Amino acid sequence: MTENRTAPLLLIADSHVQPNTKCEDEFFSMLDWIASTNYDVFFLGDNLDLWIASGSRYEADAHRRFLAWCEREKARRRVLMVEGNHEFYLKRHHDGCFTACSETFYKIGDILFMHGDVAQKRFGFHRCFRVFAKNAFGDWVMGWLPFGPAFAGIMKRFLSSGGLPDLKKLEKPLLYVEKRAKNLCRKFGVSHIIMGHFHHVVHRELGDGRKFDVIPAWKYRYEVGVLAADGSLEVLPWMEVKMKNEQRG
Question: What pTM does this model have?
Fold first, then answer.
């Protein structure tokens, strides 16, 4: 999906919100604050710890609360979403709750947004799992499966990212991502790629003015990306963004 407008965006990635936790309270406090601002917002995937949108059996109050916020706020700001590897069939069933929702890529001007798992090795676990699970057949199976919620619980444990991954262990995967980012820049005609998924702040220069950035996982330090209209990107805790706005008056 693509659009041509550019405006300041809050970028939120990998919040992995779990019900009845401090993280859930903080996440919805942040959404309440965003609703009082003029920011647009872009959710870069893996926002609620596991989201299978194949029926009410799989969706908790947090999912419904998030959808209600997005549907209400899209009348006042752009509310954009790309699915992560913890979201399944969200676009298929809840596309209307967002200004725009994409299963893979979203382009704004000269910037391409994605979750990040789609930039990993073609035959790596995340991309193979995406191909296997994220399709109409998988959606039908999950909607029909008698013991679907129990299976979803197993899937949630299987996909669990645990603690903050060691950045050194990401060196090889990120080298492949860097190569793929160069190809994606050429394919989509962009010079900047922004993604989540890898949980750490990463900035790589690709040459010829091209670059890619990773927005860190919100769940650890409640950090967001602030993308200005001129394309400059800053990463800091959302409360600092709030304080800066208050200081500007």
Answer: 0.90
Task: Give Rg (Cα) of the chain.
Answer: 17
Mean of pLDDT values over 182-198: 95
Give the SS3 label for residue 88.
Answer: strand
The pLDDT score that the predictor gives to residue 200 is 94
Q: What is the DSSP string of 198-217?
A: S-S-EEEEEETTEEEEEPPP
Q: Which residue has the higher pLDDT, 35 or 168?
A: 35
Could you give the CA distance from residue 4 to residue 116 in angstroms, rounded to a whole number? 22
Could you read off the pLDDT of 219-244 as tens digits, one per residue? Answer: 999 999 999 988 899 999 999 999 99
Please, what is the angle between helix 148-159 and helix 136-144, to 10°?
A: 120
Tell me the CATH number at 238.
3.60.21
pLDDT at 3 over 80: no
Return the C-alpha torsion angle 113, 137, 161, 170, nearest 10.
-50
Q: Are strands 79-82 and 223-227 parallel, antiparallel or unpaired?
A: unpaired
Total domain count, the chain: 1
Q: Residue 134's domain spans which residues?
A: 2-248
Pairwise CA distance, residues 216 & 236, whole Å: 10
* Tokens standing for residue 217: 């996982």
CA distance 183 to 122: 13
